[in-house]
Amino acid sequence: MAVLVKINRRSNVSEFFSFVALPQRYSDQQQSQFQKLEFGIQYLMDGGTLNIKKWVVMYPVYINSKKSVAEGRRISLSKACENPNCIEITDCYKHLKLPSAVEIDKAYPRDFMQVGRVRVQLKREDGTLLNPAITSSKTTSAS
């Protein structure tokens, strides 16, 4: 499940969008993929707010085989894929049954033209793992 989230930093309020206007650097196909993402409103069933600030951040650059380690790649070339996007990463997390959130308006700090990141919840509030097979963010990158 994926959630499109925009965090208002001034008020620390999460806003949910059913339609997000994306920058022009995305193709029409990518824009339609972003708009077709499922919304995980069921995360709010307990009446609390969605706290994704403690979730692990995953930029597509981390697993891009076209990037060097100096440019931000974090895993080996044999495990990396070519030019991943947030949609593909979210689909992988959905397959692993891990809740994830796409933040479209965030940019990679080293290269601000790389827009979008994915947050994933690996642990519950009490510290237990959601998926015992996934112990760290490096394990999810290699999956």
From TrEMBL:
- Which terms are listed as keywords in the entry? Cytoplasm, Nucleus, Ribonucleoprotein, RNA-binding, Signal recognition particle
What does the entry list under GO cellular component?
nucleolus; signal recognition particle, endoplasmic reticulum targeting
Answer yes or no on keyword Cytoplasm.
Answer: yes
Single Gene Ontology BP term?
Answer: SRP-dependent cotranslational protein targeting to membrane, signal sequence recognition
GO MF, one annotated term: 7S RNA binding
Stretches assigned to coiled coil:
none
Could you list the residue ranges that cross the membrane?
none
Please state the protein's primary subcellular location.
cytoplasm
Where on the tree of life does the source sit, at the highest rank?
Answer: Eukaryota
Localization (cell): Cytoplasm; Nucleus, Nucleolus
Cite the record's note on assembly: Component of a signal recognition particle complex that consists of a 7SL RNA molecule of 300 nucleotides and six protein subunits: SRP72, SRP68, SRP54, SRP19, SRP14 and SRP9.
Q: What does this protein do?
A: Component of the signal recognition particle (SRP) complex, a ribonucleoprotein complex that mediates the cotranslational targeting of secretory and membrane proteins to the endoplasmic reticulum (ER). Binds directly to 7SL RNA. Mediates binding of SRP54 to the SRP complex.
Family membership: Belongs to the SRP19 family.
Q: What is this protein called?
A: Signal recognition particle 19 kDa protein
Organism from which the protein derives: Brassica cretica
